[in-house]
Amino acid sequence: MKARTRRLAALFLFLSLLLFACSNPQPLPTEPTPIPTLQPATMPPPATPTARPEFLTIRYPETPPSAVAAQPLYLSECATCHGEDGNGVVPEARNFGDVDYMRGQTPVRFYQIITEGRNEMPGYKEQFSDEERWDLAFYVWTFAVGADTLQQGQAIFEQNCAVCHGADGVGVVPNAPDFTDVAFVAQRSATDFFQVVTEGRGAMPAWQGRLSAEERWAVIEYLRTFAYEPAVGVATAGAPPAAGGEEATPVPTEAPAATETGAIPAAYLQSGCVSCHGDKAQGGAIGPMLVGIRARHIKEVVRKGRPGTAMMAYDQAAISDADLEALAQALSAMTLQDAGVELSQAVVDHLTKAQAALAAGDKAAVETHLKKAQEAATDAPPGVQVTLQVMIQRMQDPNWDKYIEMRLAALLGS
Predict the structure, then answer these.
(1) pLDDT digits (tens, 9 = 90+) for 100-138
(2) Contact 269, 172 (CB under 8 A)
(3) Does 379 fall in a domain?
């Protein structure tokens, strides 16, 4: 009972105090309350502007760099860190013998590093002349590319590439790059070239199915030597072959004779036709035979191209109307014998049956005999196989009969 009384007394006291506070509010201030003055922060000293780094102006040499000239300079100034074999003798020194690494690099990047330095390596802009730095930039490839690779690449280039790119690498067909252009080669890695050679680009076909990876790498390393003088022996256009080697078969400067009374016009070679259609228009691994094709058809295809194929359109800047007319007439007058092509009897039999079916208007029979002729031509030259393949594909065209009639007449000499 006493505890309850105490609790009630405490509650009464609390309520009394609360009522007293509410009935006597504190008066409002008569003047604004001053804002306290804050101590100013100490300002840091003004920053000294940092000078912007100078960007290196690349000056490409007017004459091809020489890895031969760079060799003594490398041995006297660079081998201490990078080793006489290029494998590196101090920590973090680059191994120039690492083939995979070198294939991904560009000469211009090495030129920049030699000029400006990188990490622990100082720059040599003041010590070496511009020509010496370019010589060194190309010399380091000596450790990853041997003489045997360059010689292998040279043989492949002369056999497969010179017809379009020229024996000297300058290029003889429209849009072919100039491999003697130092800037063009220095800005691209071997990997960049490898992708183009493998996949093809523009009028250039893909070489993945015709050259092994090793052969493609070899020809790429060789074509780069048009822009510089390699330190290892390799015969170049117009130069004597390497000691102990056999003289390479020269690339013809004009198309060989097609008939006893005339020759395929020079425009055939200059326009790059030979690379896909063969030196005698006998066809190849890419393009069909051109012998006996109507002149009007040849001119139309040359001017318009064939979308979806490697056959690009050639305007008058690439081949004039007069040259195209002469070329079309020459090809139209050619026969299989002129091209050095002989069809097996089995192929001839099926083509003859296809011609008879065409005359009868039996499209299905025409296609059947063309496919049988293709099966019978498994041992025939690539140009024959590609020609038959194209004929079968063209069966889907609206004017298939005109094209097949023209092809069969050329193949059968009728």
Answers:
(1) 999 999 999 999 999 998 888 889 999 999 999 999 999
(2) yes
(3) yes
Residue 224's Cα: distance from chain center in Å? Answer: 13
Of 242, 275, 299, which closes a domain? 242
**Are 288 and 184 within one domain?**
no
Residue 392: which CATH number?
Answer: 1.20.120
Give the confidence band of 353 by pLDDT, cuts at 50, 70, 90.
very high
Q: Which of 227, 242, 257 is the last residue of a domain?
A: 242
Note the pLDDT tens digit of each residue in 183-223. 999 999 999 999 999 988 876 778 887 889 999 999 999 99
Indicate if 60 and 164 belong to the same structural domain: yes
Strand partners, 201: 204
CATH (domain of 228): 1.10.760.10
- The backbone region for 41, taken as left when phi is positive above 0, alpha when psi lies in -120 to 50, beta otherwise, is beta
Q: In angstroms, rounded to a whole number, what is the distance separating the alpha carbons of residues 126 and 372?
A: 73
Q: Looking at beta carbons, which pairs linking 239-245 to residues 24 or more positions away fall under 8 Å?
A: 242/147, 242/151, 245/151
Same domain, 152 and 296: no
Residue 12 falls inside a structural domain: no
Write out the residue range of the structural domain in which residue 273 sits.
Answer: 267-339
Per-residue tokens: 197: 């050679």
| Residues contacting residue 333 through CB under 8 Å, at least 6 positions apart | 259
Angstrom distance (rounded) from CA 309 to CA 317: 21
**Would you call 13 helix, strand, or coil by DSSP?**
helix
Do 324 and 283 lie in one domain? The reply is yes
Residues 6+ apart with CB under 8 A from 338: 258, 259, 280, 291
Rounded Cα distance, 219 and 152, in Å? 7
**DSSP class per residue in 348-410:** HHHHHHHHHHHHTT-HHHHHHHHHHHHHHTTTS-HHHHHHHHHHHHHTTSTTHHHHHHHHHHH
CA 379 to chain centre: 33
Same domain, 273 and 172: no
pTM: 0.56
| Number of domains the chain is built from | 3
Tokens of 53: 């780094």
> What does the pLDDT average to over 273-299?
86
Cα→Cα distances 121→70, 124, 131, Å: 18, 9, 20
